[in-house]
Amino acid sequence: MTTISLNQESVATLMQADDAKLESVIQASVKAEVKTPVPTTPKKPGMLALKSREFFQWIIPPMFGIGLLLVVWTVIAHQSPNLPGPVSTWHSAVQLFSHPFYDNGPNDKGIGWNIVASLERVGLGFGLAALVGIPMGFILGRFEFMSRMAAPIIGLLRPVSPLAWLPIGLLVFKMANPAAIWVIFISAIWPMIINTAVGVSKVPQDYMNVAKVLNLSEWKIVTKILFPFVLPYMMTGVRLSIGVAWLVIVAAEMLTGGVGIGFWVWDEWNNLNVEHIIIAIFVVGIVGFMLEFLLLSIAKRFSYE
């Protein structure tokens, strides 16, 4: 509440002034006493400050996580002398990646060649799984008879451990490299089949009724109705498959030998070079993360939502 007061000088003026002057003096006194509050607006932070805040909110939690991992690793390495710590592993990694593509014969290649060889096998096995699995998922989701026919086969074979397929591959293909690709293929195909079939089965019946009314061909139904609706489900299956494929390749290459990150890990274990094994673990994780990030970017780019 605002209070209004008249000082002694104003009262004296009032007593001597006539009525007209009295009114003007009163108004002047009121204006002098009443102070209109000036609204204050909070100062908005600048664009640079907002970007900096977002960056630190984005980077700080992962940095804390990595720091915690390094602390735990250091403590475990201090308790177990045979396990290298982060510092010695870092120095070994710097030396290893200073010449990643050296070639001293079939059994002594740089880590770069081993990563490339593993990526080639994963690319072939995963590509074949996509070529077979995605169309099969469309068929199983589109036709109930085919879905019921394939259900017991998928339910029987899907839980089988990927490495259990390796002897079958060695027996059929007579060579280690095709057998490793076969293991990747049979491991990566199930997520693509199942996710694609589930996506097709969830297409609203109204869409299919419209297709019948318009007398669309099966190709039109697949390309104009099913594919846009199923794409998110299909990309989820593709992402799961690439993760499975990259997981399986290490174990498969340990058993088949040759050039590859899995064989490289096993070779370093035989040489008791634990630092290189830890480096390989990080390499496998980083490459797997990059593959999934790449597929996620592709899925967002081609999303119909």
TrEMBL record:
GO cellular component: plasma membrane
A GO molecular-function annotation: nitrate transmembrane transporter activity
Chain segments annotated as transmembrane: 55-76, 122-141, 153-173, 179-198, 244-265, 277-299
Membrane topology: Multi-pass membrane protein
PROSITE patterns hit by this protein: ABC_TM1 (PS50928)
Gene3D superfamilies named in the record: MetI-like
Species of origin: Methyloradius palustris
A Pfam family this chain is assigned to: BPD_transp_1
ABC transmembrane type-1 domain location: 115-295
Protein name in the entry: Nitrate ABC transporter, permease protein
GO biological process assignments: alkanesulfonate transmembrane transport; monoatomic ion transport
Major subcellular site: membrane
InterPro entries to which the protein is assigned, alphabetical: MetI-like, MetI-like_sf, NtrB
Family: Belongs to the binding-protein-dependent transport system permease family.
Localization annotation: Cell inner membrane; Cell membrane
Keyword annotations from UniProtKB, A to Z: Cell inner membrane, Cell membrane, Ion transport, Membrane, Transmembrane, Transmembrane helix, Transport
Superkingdom of the organism of origin: Bacteria
Record bears the keyword Transmembrane helix: yes
